[in-house]
Design brief:
- With 187 residues, the protein is an alpha+beta fold.
- The chain is 56% helix and 12% strand.
- The protein has five helices and six strands.
- A hairpin with a 6-residue loop joins β1 (2-4) and β2 (11-13).
- The longest helix has 34 residues, at 60-93.
- Mean pLDDT is 84; it is low at 1-19.
C-alpha cells in the first residue's frame, strides 16, 4: 500500500525495499586455509576500490580495525574543524591580551590535525566510508545471509565538502596564527 510522501507528494511504499546486489558487497567469514585473514583483507580492499555503496564486513577483527580507522579519521576531522573554529572565534569573545593564549594553540592543533588527515587519510579508499548504525537503513541490507551476529556495515559517502570545510578552516586558522606570531615578534 502506498501513501503520499510528506514533503513532495510522491507515492511512498511502506514496505521495506531491499538493496540491489550490485550496491552491497559482503566480506564473508569463511575460513579455508591458513591465509584466511589475508583473504579477508584482500576482499575488503577490492570492495573499497570497486566503490560499493555498502560493504558488510563479517570477520570481527578486520571489521573492528576498519571501524577504528574510520573513527580516528572522523576524530581528526572534527578536531581540525572545532579547534580551527575556536581559534577564529576566540578573538571575538575574549580580551585581546588573553585571546592569543587560546587562539594560537587551537590554531596549531587545527593545522596539525588537518595536515595529519591529509597525509594519512586523504588517499585511503576507506575515508570515503562511514560506519552505519541506523537500524532502519541496516534492515534494507541482506544481513540474513550472514554467519556473524555483529558485522560492521560501511556506507559510502561523498567527503568532498567535509575535506573542503576542514581544509578551509585550518588554512584560515594558520593565516591567523602566522599574523599573530608576526605581530608578537615584530613589535
Amino acid at each position: 500500500m502506498a501513501s503520499l510522501g510528506r514533503r513532495r507528494g510522491v507515492p511512498v511504499s511502506r514496505e521495506r525495499a531491499v538493496m540491489a546486489a550490485s550496491d552491497c558487497y559482503i566480506v564473508h567469514e569463511i575460513y579455508n586455509g591458513e591465509n584466511a585473514q589475508d583473504q579477508f583483507e584482500y576482499e575488503l580492499e577490492q570492495a573499497l576500490e570497486a566503490q560499493y555503496k555498502y560493504i558488510v564486513i563479517e570477520p570481527t577483527r578486520i571489521g573492528d580495525e576498519t571501524a577504528r580507522w574510520i573513527t580516528v579519521g572522523n576524530c581528526l576531522h572534527k578536531t581540525a574543524v572545532l579547534s580551527g573554529t575556536a581559534c577564529l572565534l576566540t578573538p571575538l569573545s575574549l580580551p585581546m591580551e588573553y585571546s592569543r593564549y587560546v587562539a594560537l594553540p587551537a590554531g596549531a592543533l587545527s593545522v596539525a590535525c588537518a595536515a595529519l588527515y591529509g597525509i594519512s587519510w586523504q588517499f585511503d579508499p576507506c575515508c570515503k566510508y562511514q560506519v552505519e548504525y541506523d537500524s532502519q537503513k541496516l534492515s534494507r541490507l541482506p544481513l540474513h545471509t550472514l554467519t556473524s551476529s555483529t558485522p560492521v556495515v560501511l556506507v559510502r559517502r561523498d567527503d568532498v565538502h567535509r575535506k573542503r570545510l576542514h581544509n578551509t578552516i585550518a588554512l584560515a586558522a594558520l593565516a591567523y596564527c602566522v599574523k599573530k606570531i608576526y605581530e608578537l615578534y615584530a613589535v
